Amino acid sequence: MSAILRIPLSIRVPLLTALLMVALGVVASQQVLAALDRLQDARIREIARLHVETLSVALGPHVLRDDVWEVYDTLQRAAGEGEGRRMIFTAVADEDGRVIAATLPDRAPLDSSIAEISDGAQPPANLTVPSDEETLRLVAPLVYQGREVGQVVTELDVADLVAERRRAGRLLLLGNAVATGVLALLGYFLMRRMLRPITRLSQRMRDTSDQPEQVPETEIPRGDTELSRLVHTYNAMARTLVAKRDAERRLAERERFVSLGRLSSALAHEINNPLGGLLNAADTIREYADRPEVVRRSAELLTRGLNHLRDVSRAMLEQNRLDRSGAALSAEDFEDIHLLIGPEINRQAQRLSWKVEVTPTALEVLPAGPVRQSALNLLLNASAAAGRQGRVWFRVAPDRDHLHMMVADTGPGLSGSARTRLLSSGPVPPGGGVGLRLVHDLVEELGGVIQLDRRDGRTEIAVSLPLKGKEDPQC
Amino acid sequence: MLNGFRIALVEDDEIMGHSLVQRLELEGAEVIWMKQVGRAIGALRTPRAHRRGDLRHPPA
């Protein structure tokens, strides 16, 4: 049964149709053969009845008078003239069942019991044409003038009827086989044709399971059938899915700017304060232009401030550009993140414990973009969770084949929906940002693992990224 | 001119702090620069002290 169930529907239904056609052909042949049998039986019964009646009329008076020679003579004539020489052998017996004459005296000697040869003979009313023998034996009472005067046993030649039936049977079988075969083939191809849209649809779904593709208009069955409705429904689903993917991708792209946006007020402060200092220094230079040592010190201040501003703006630019750059990860990326998160940590008067122990070469296999985005999102999340004067930890350390990144905070721990967004690929519960989901997706893309731990009032999120590239994301 | 003034400066930004200290000293004031308000409290107790700084930073 399971083997049948494994056959695809597009083959199974046409096969079933063909089988039904064959079954239909077999039943029809049976019916026709049975009808032929009935027809032949009726014919042989009619022949037998006429034969017996004729004999009765011809033999009756002689049997009544026990005139053996007349009976024999009549039998001989009958045997010679019988229609188409159908009669092979006939014996006649008197009332007591004693043979008084026979066409072949050897088989039924005079005075022998008729019962010896009537054994296995049928009465005319029940005659049926045998399927394998070419002769038929019948026994009938000899009735003369309304009274039974003896018995007749006759053997009839039915070879022609048997042959006719065989021929008819063969022709019928051949014809039916051809007709059934044609019908079965026709049914098979018709069904395949009707099911082709389903075959195509299932193939399309199998081939493009992760990026569903719509069925082109030309392939949609015409009319308002179930099939065309099915294809239209599928197309609508495919459109929705593609639109959803697009929306998710746009959201993820926007998230890069969102994380910068969350930093913007702190970063503006980070730029504004040194700017004020730079303006002060410029004013001092103008005011004390005749004192070289003052000018020199102010210029040094200007250089330091400008360098700082350049670093901040470069870190922001990098953060904006990193998805497209495809650059390899380096230790500087972590310094950038430190610079970006710093103002936010200061704004909340938090303490940040920063420890990045990396050798430049170890990181090269990882792309900078996703790692920076993940680290920044986790840090922003930790800083927001830790609250005013909270503590935030950041550790990065590679071992032989993994880069371990750990972000911890003294916040209250992740909520259920935040946990879902960070740890599972399931649908994102409504509400809340997509920052943690983005971390999940980025880490998954890199073949990494995220672990969440909470102990001693600390929430720890550990990310392990394989340093062997993405050849085998399963391990 | 600020000759004779003692000023407690509370500023957490390096550049801004340095520029202010430099300028105020050039103007003749005596400047005590602290990064956080808490540490400036002692200086503020001195009667003639002025303060200038970034008040967005509450006491640590």
Name the descriptors.
heterodimer, A: alpha+beta, Beta-Lactamase, 2 domains, 4-stranded antiparallel beta sheet, 9 strands, 15% strand, rod-shaped, B: 60 residues, alpha/beta, 2 helices, 37% helix
Structural features, described:
The complex is a heterodimer of chains A (475) and B (60). With 475 residues, chain A is of the alpha+beta class. Chain A contains eleven helices and nine strands. A five-stranded mixed β-sheet of chain A has the order 5-6-7-9-8, covered by helices on one side. A four-stranded antiparallel β-sheet of chain A has the order 2-1-4-3. In chain A, helix 9 links the parallel strand 5 and strand 6. The radius of gyration of chain A is 53 Å and the shape is rod-shaped. Chain B has 60 residues and is an alpha/beta fold. Chain B has one domain. Helix content of chain B is 37%, strand content 23%. Chain B has a three-stranded parallel β-sheet with strand order 2-1-3, sandwiched between helices. The C terminus of chain B is likely disordered. Chains A and B meet through helix 6 and helix 7 of A and helix 1 of B.
| Strand/helix succession of chain B | EHEHE
Oligomer: heterodimer
What's the end-to-end separation of chain A, in Å? 39 Å
Shape descriptor of chain B reads flat
Tell me how many strands of chain A there are.
9
The assigned structural class of chain A equals alpha+beta
Main beta sheet of chain B: 3 strands, parallel
Roughly what fraction of the amino acids of chain B lie in strands?
A: 15-25%
Task: Please give the order of strands in the largest beta sheet of chain A.
Answer: 5-6-7-9-8
Helix content class of chain B: 25-40%
Radius of gyration of chain A: 53 Å
Task: Summarize this structure briefly.
Chain A has helices at residues 2-6, 9-65, 68-81, 115-118, 159-207, 226-287, 292-325, 331-347, 368-386, 416-423, 435-445; strands spanning 87-94, 99-102, 135-144, 147-157, 351-356, 391-398, 402-409, 449-455, 458-466. Chain A is α+β, with helices and mostly antiparallel strands. Chain A is rod-shaped.
